[in-house]
Design brief:
6 helices; mainly alpha; 146 residues
Length: 146
């Protein structure tokens, strides 16, 4: 390729799992030429993200329901549902026409990065900080919560 494809969307979050990043980057590479195809790839990326979050990855809607039952924050649930609905409409045209509103596809890239930040990066950062507490303090917390 002499001239790289234009990617008018945000790059993948640094903590995006390797199992998801290929679809995300492929979607970035084609978004300018085909927002619908890019969004369809992002729907696949969301499906591949679900097992990384402890879900089956067979049914996005069912996985979201399971995450909600486990205490998923409302904002993250809405981000997931945004991705699910926009992604579904890319492969099964409905009320959203991505050729008329490519910004919906751009928002999808942002939503996926938001989900990764909330569900992967923040827990990792908190766990790293918590691990720095003295062993006696962590034991006291475990005793309290038992």
């Amino acid at each position: 390729m002499i001239i790289p494809a234009e990617a008018p969307v945000c790059p993948p979050h640094p903590d995006m799992p390797a199992s998801v990043i290929d679809e995300y980057n492929e979607a970035r590479s084609i978004f300018a030429r085909s927002p619908r195809a890019a969004v369809a790839l992002l729907r696949l990326a969301i499906q591949k993200l679900m097992p990384e979050l402890g879900e089956k990855g067979d049914n996005i809607n069912g996985d979201i329901k399971s995450l909600v039952a486990k205490g998923l924050p409302v904002q993250v649930q809405q981000a997931f549902d945004f991705c699910r609905v926009v992604g579904n409409n890319a492969v099964h045209p409905g009320e959203i026409n991505l050729n008329d509103t490519p910004e919906m596809g751009q928002h999808l890239f942002s939503m996926i990065n938001f989900i990764v930040e909330d569900q992967i990066t923040r827990p990792k950062q908190i766990a790293e900080l918590y691990a720095q507490l003295p062993e006696s303090a962590r034991a006291a917390v475990e005793k309290r919560d038992a």
